[in-house]
Amino acid sequence: MNSSKTSISPLVAAFVLLLLMSWLTTGWKPMEDSYISFRYAAHAALGHGFVFNPGERVEGYTNFLWTALLAGGGIVRWKAIPQIALILELLFGLGAVWVLWKWRRSAFAVLLLAVFPGFGDNIGLGLEAALLAFLLTLGAYCLFDRHRTAAGSALLGLAFLARPDYGLVGLLLLATAWLATPKAQRNLGSLLRLVAPWALLVAGMELFRFWYYGDVVPNTFHAKAGIDFKYDLALGANSLWFYLKQGGFAFVVLLVLVATAARRNIVRLGVVATVAVFVAYDLLVGGPSGNPSRFLAPLIPLLLAIFPWANPDRFGRTSPVLLAFATLLGTVATVYAKPAALDETKNPAVDIYELVSLAVQPLPAKTSVVFQAIGRVGWENMQLRLVDPLALTNRQVARYGASHPEIPIQGHRKWMTADQFFAARPDYYVPFSPGTIKRGRCPDNPTYQPRPGGPDIAVMSDPRLLRQYTALSLSADHEGCVLAFRRNP
């Protein structure tokens, strides 16, 4: 009995460390982007379908499986979706640790994963990173350790449903399994068991996407499609550099050590190549919005799983020590340099979302409002029709909006043009520019003048705005004042 308790003590310690790391870095508060998925899930739970605005079928999210899980949980009480998301994230994060333990039985591996920079600080944000980590790790475990090819292939197919980008990861891991399995190379039945589940899930998702949304890629693909290679690469490099400064150098150390130890092992070489290709993809698409490690987090347990912990004679006794030291430093850096996007003291935009959300709450149901940050404002005002000027949930802007690579915004490439704005005829327009959103009570006769910047330039500079709209101040429960424009009757 004592040996049994001892055997699982590293796993229990890893669970506790992961929960602590997650809470310290995220505060278990959803980030802005997660509220978009919450609103889609809530509408699905309420019977409106997977839509941001009822009646408008636009795939403005990239995590169908995650959104579907939230919708299923929200059927009983849709307002609890953020809490459901947190519970699922924690369970999937702990699940990834458990799979790693089952795979390697290494206390060192699971304890490192629990505190690894870029893993725990992506759990608690309301997004799909933990789900992806669980699916990829369990899928690879089934493929490479348990030799359950059909199950592993299906799990990698589910990862595609969780986020289409990871179809690339799944395809490369399946190719690795094929190269590592001579039987699959000679036997058609073995090959079908390896490929068919993944292919069926991917094809099924694509058929659903085309039938429901009329496209084979999410609308966000058009919104974020590369406009200028140089600027996309610069954004991706900046995102990766930001992750390195927050402790992500431990990820680089891990990747290099695993690559060094791979030698002629096909599985290790295949996994290293898969991760390297995905890092290159992350760079080329400009990196994620929000937490810079978001795209790489699901790959961390996969790398730890193929690290040759049990073979110090072949790998070198100092390398695990080096990795542990890098991870410790990275952990301190991650907690100390808490991402600005997640820290209210460093990010005044958190207050802006709150103020705008309060200001538009009294507006009648189905009122159409244009505002750049549609996440939290859209979630807290389900009764309104939010029009997205940054194209994520707006097909017209995603396809035909203006591109401004000279003013790069992480995660956004297309902006609403003035002609698109006036053609849409929204009831209200709330600019997201300096001077338009302030703390304190609204003055009776506001004298401050907005200074348009970024995506607001086109509309705010157009003379039609003051002819067709009336400027007014919306009070945010005496907490602040929001400049808005109301369409004239």
What can you see in these coordinates?
Strands 1, 2, 5, 6, 7 and 8 form a 6-stranded mixed β-sheet that branches. By secondary structure, the chain is an alpha/beta fold. The protein contains 22 helices and 8 strands. Residues 1-6 and 340-350 have low confidence and may be disordered. It has 2 domains: 2-342, no CATH class; 349-487.
Characteristic terms for this protein:
489 residues; alpha/beta; 2 domains; 6-stranded mixed β-sheet; globular
Tell me the count of domains: 2
- Which regions have little confidence, pLDDT < 50, spanning 5+ residues? 1-6, 340-350
- What is the helix tally? 22
Give the overall shape. Answer: globular
Total beta strands: 8
Strand content: 5-15%
Helix-residue proportion: 55-70%
Reading the helices and strands in chain order gives HHHHHHHHHHHHHHHHHEHEHEEHEEHHEE
Computed structural class: alpha/beta
What is the distance, rounded to the nearest whole angstrom, between the alpha carbons of the first and last residues?
Answer: 78 Å
> Major sheet, described briefly?
6 strands, mixed
Mean pLDDT: 84
Rg estimate, integer Å: 24 Å
List the helices and strands and how they pair.
Layout: H1 2-26, H2 34-45, H3 64-74, H4 81-104, H5 107-115, H6 129-144, H7 149-162, H8 166-180, H9 182-186, H10 188-213, H11 219-224, H12 229-262, H13 266-284, H14 300-306, H15 312-315, H16 318-336, H17 349-360, E1 368-370, H18 375-380, E2 385-387, H19 395-400, E3 402-403, E4 414-415, H20 418-424, E5 428-429, E6 437-439, H21 457-460, H22 464-468, E7 469-475, E8 480-487
Parallel strand pairs: 1-2, 1-5
Antiparallel strand pairs: 3-4, 5-8, 6-8, 7-8
Helix pairs in contact: 1-4, 1-5, 2-3, 3-7, 4-5, 4-6, 4-14, 5-14, 6-7, 6-8, 6-14, 7-8, 7-10, 8-10, 8-13, 12-13, 12-14, 12-16
